[in-house]
Amino acid sequence: MKLKIKGTGEKIVSRGLEKIDQILILGWGLIGDLFIRIPLIEALKDRFPGAEITVVVDPVCVAVLENHPACDHVIAFCRDKYPLIKYLMRYISQVMQMRRQHFDLCVNLYYGGSSVLISQLANARIRVCFDHTPALCRANNLMVPRPSFCNNWTLDLARMLVPLGIPLDTIRRGTSFYCSSASSVFAEKFLVGNSSSLIGINLGAGADEKRWPVDRFVELATKVNREHGLKPLVFTNPGMEQLADEFIASYTRYGDAIHVPLVSIDRVAGLMLHCDYVVTGDTALMHLAFGLKRPTLALFTCTRPETVEPEDVPHASCFVAGQDGTDICGNPMGTVDIPLDEAYRQFCNLIRSAKNAAASG
To answer: Which of 100, 129, 306, 346 has the fewest CB atoms within 10 Å of its CB?
Structure first.
């Protein structure tokens, strides 16, 4: 790997890493984006076990890390610029908070426009990032060539850690989530009286064209219940509450289901731990299921499975190549037109995979 170095970056490469006590990680993005970066946070903690790690995220992502043992501090940094005066006051306050921590190392895993100035103002001694824009090259002193992101995204991001002495083959494909004790108590109370084995159902997706139709979920859940005795535990998605209502209204003609109201991701995790299996699209809750090591049927209705599939949890992927476009690597994107028979076939594969994993310990 050819590195671009300047300033203290030369010392990193030629003399080895100096003492690292404070690490700042810039991790803005969607919840799913943060989940795929968690193995990198864990790898940094393993590499520098005595260091305190602070992660900057969007406010909606705080819960993903607040119980994670590799993360010592989480800064909720809102990038909404309106109203402008409040944004500027908040910005200055949080930058000053970062500077007071005297970071030795800043790893910019966001590498978008919002991160350039923060990389500079946080004033870490070592600042690592990809090298694909002049602004990033000016803001950082240890640059790594930007990968293609045509393969697993976690491993592509992990290339940024190689000059820090973290080999790519030590990075796992997967993620983690740690429930609070309060969420475990909530789940026990919520499910009191239920004696059935459960299958978690996540209906939501970011846009209509990315959602597997609710009636297909109902048909799949009905068949799974009939053949395997699994009761649906249906999660409610923010801004898409009608999907869960529609599922429950349709499914009650065939059997009982448990409707989970809109709750925090921590409480969703507590409930998901009671599920034998999870069925979900490529959303934040798919990554949550992977992080909880729940056997998961993932419906890739737009994205491609190879970019995010984990290696440490039983899973099966449904993907049908679409005709409407390709990704940045020229590969066809998925389509919502996944046949019911294919989804059920993959679910049966998932059952076998989960049983084999359990038998092997």
So the answer is: 100
